Amino acid sequence: MNLFKRKTPVEDLPQEDVSQEEAYVVNDAPTKSFGQAILPVIACGAGLFSDGYVNNVIGSVSTVLIYQYGDLYTTSNAKKYVSDIAFVGTVVGQLLFGFLSDYWSRTNSLLISTVILIIFTALAAGSYYHGDAVGMFNILTAWRFFVGIGIGGEYPSGSVGCAESTGELKQGSRNRWFILFTNSMIDWGFVIGAFVPYVVAAACHNGHYETIWRTSLGIGCIFPIVLFVMRLRLKEPEEFTKNSMRYAKTPYLLVLRFYGWRLFIVSLIWFIYDFSAYSFGIYSSTILANIYDSSQAPLTTVFGWNTVINMFYLPGTMLGAPVSDWLGPRYALAGGVTLQAIVGFIMAGCYTSLSKPSMVGAFAVVYGIFLALGELGPGNNIGLLAAKTCATGVRGRYYGIAAAIGKIGAFVGTWVFPYIVAAGGDNEVTSAQYPFYVSSALCILSAALALFCLPHIGQDTIQKEDIRFRAYLESKGYDTRQLGLKKGESLDSVEIAQNETKA
């Protein structure tokens, strides 16, 4: 039963498109304990840990494969394909599961994506091809593509389900819990994805290369297995139960007219963020180059410092999570990305001084602040904006398209930034500065897009969007009575049994 606290006027809907009866959205008081409400948030969102782990551990795996196979690995282009193919798979997964999570089920889509992730992560760890190293590289590349599909499914199924499940939590805290179990999970995945190879390399005394990379990949199965068990008990989020288009024909033209501009802006911000983020790795390599000789360093040294660099992300995402509740995700994104741009311009302008070996400590601190601000701004909030700027019936597809365009931006960035670096010519300082001038300028553009082209996102925006969208569809003659799941469809077997006993 819903307990009604108050009514809030719907914002931003043209008056001719909304009736008096539908001009209000009901804010529900929490009907569950915190423990009951937070479990589906964790189960839905935490799968993005695997995104961080799988995408970061492959860098360490590639390093080990270079140590093991030398020029055979680098000259066969395997290094590039093994690292990048997961991007392609992720885009496919985001689009595919965006459709499935809307047309079929949030929870079933999650379970399938988790199974795909577990199976193909295990296959990647066991890649073998009759003793032929090049053949093994090809098999590893193929399995990584399917791993990417599993990861991609987490975005429109998991993150969307997580956002919808936060409606059961107390107002004023919903954004932070979404962030802590989505973007923060990615960042923790990055850290653990760097730390696990360090531990394994230490246990192997920097030898037994095959054991190191296979074990590092295989450990990536553990978290999805635990999560799969948790997800077996998941029910469909309440908003999905009420507003799903599972049994309704999607009016794509009306959806495009109503949400096309927002989707374009959210996708563009996500593209810019991922596109730019890859240039920031330049400073990481500069710091490490001033600390040790990568061509002679033992694996534990390489992986240890990689772990330290990745830990810079954590303060930004963890401390920045409450900011999205205090300011709202739109202002938090704009503020964080503006501050990041300022620091980026300073780092580019002072690169000559900061890149000296004697300044490595100061460089690392400033770089850490730079990364933290990126997480506080777009890192934390772009997924939140994508999840809460559209209605439940099309949220999976909307989110999946935006996330896929973001991943495409990351892929494009890996190919474009070498040309930006090359534009600096033989001047090493200029070549390092150019990408950061470009990225910092794009940060300012992202802030402007968020401030001037997106609506305010409040604690009950998901409910408001469903009311607005229903009203719009009805104003265009669409029968909204077909929205929602059938009675009892969202109940799990335990609840059904309890209800039958009571009857």
Automatic annotation (TrEMBL):
InterPro entries xref list: MFS_dom, MFS_sugar_transport-like, MFS_trans_sf
Pfam families: Sugar_tr (PF00083)
PROSITE patterns: MFS (PS50850)
Superkingdom of origin organism: Eukaryota
GO cellular component: plasma membrane
Entry keyword annotation includes Transmembrane: yes
Domain Major facilitator superfamily (MFS) profile residue range list: 40-458
Transmembrane annotation, as ranges: 85-104, 110-129, 177-200, 212-230, 251-273, 302-321, 333-354, 360-377, 398-422, 434-454
GO molecular function (one): carboxylic acid transmembrane transporter activity
Subcellular localization: Membrane
Keywords for the protein's UniProt record, in alphabetical order: Membrane, Transmembrane, Transmembrane helix, Transport
Sequence similarity: Belongs to the major facilitator superfamily. Sugar transporter (TC 2.A.1.1) family.
Top-level taxonomy: Eukaryota, Fungi, Dikarya, Ascomycota, Pezizomycotina
Transmembrane in keyword set: yes
Name this polypeptide is given: Major facilitator superfamily (MFS) profile domain-containing protein
Membrane topology: Multi-pass membrane protein
SUPFAM superfamilies assigned: MFS general substrate transporter
